[in-house]
Amino acid sequence: ALMALLNSRDRFAAAAFTPIFFNFTLIGSAIVMVRVDAPIYIWAMAAVLGGFLQWLSLVPHGWRLGMRFWSGNLFGDPALKRIGALMIPGLFGVGITQVNILVGQSLASWLAEGNITGLFLAGRLTELPLGVFAIAIATVVLPMMSRQAAHGNNDEMLLTLNFALRQVALITIPASVGLLILREEIVGVLFQYGEFTAESTSMTAAALAGYSVGLMAFAGIRIVAPGFYAMRDTRTPVKIAAVAMVVNV
């Protein structure tokens, strides 16, 4: 919520910087766990701590923008009621995404050993261009499209959406081709050592080939879905995600 508030006020730097606290906490706890042979639940506790530090770092920025943690009319606020009504379909959409992930992992568990790891690593490699470029562009254009839709400037909103899609295509199409052609080399350089054998590299590269073909589509979803959200339509993306889940299964 704090990140969304800052983004809506075009304060992108503070919101973009906060994951550093979460990542550093996880990395630091992992190093400590290896050195002192700590139980695995320590890492789960570190994830909670990292999330709290991430939230805490945003509080001063939100306070300066007028955010307050309590209002006497909190549950009767019409704006919050509208947000709640729009949020419910979005929660189902997030759940559908997680179901897709579980389905993929379940199917991979029936195959040879190492396929689940291969799917996970291939997914992380695909998330790199998505996270660095597609999500960053979507974060910036969503407040702009929301303002344009709120003022009834639908033509301007469509121009903004088309511009964002072109920018994403300019980046993800070459990235998709590069991942597809160099998949074996990329996976081998990054992961092939220790227990990760040449066979593991081949399995991961095969999964990466499939993911890379759909990279532009994945990126397009990150841009088009916020377009629906800007128009206060949270139901259509959920319906499309449900159809995609059925096809995936």
TrEMBL record:
It is found in: Cell membrane. GO terms for cellular component: plasma membrane. This is Murein biosynthesis integral membrane protein MurJ. GO terms for biological process: lipid translocation; peptidoglycan biosynthetic process; regulation of cell shape. GO terms for molecular function: lipid-linked peptidoglycan transporter activity. InterPro entries: Lipid_II_flippase_MurJ/MviN, MurJ. The chain crosses the membrane at residues 12-34, 40-63, 83-108, 128-146, 158-182, 202-225.
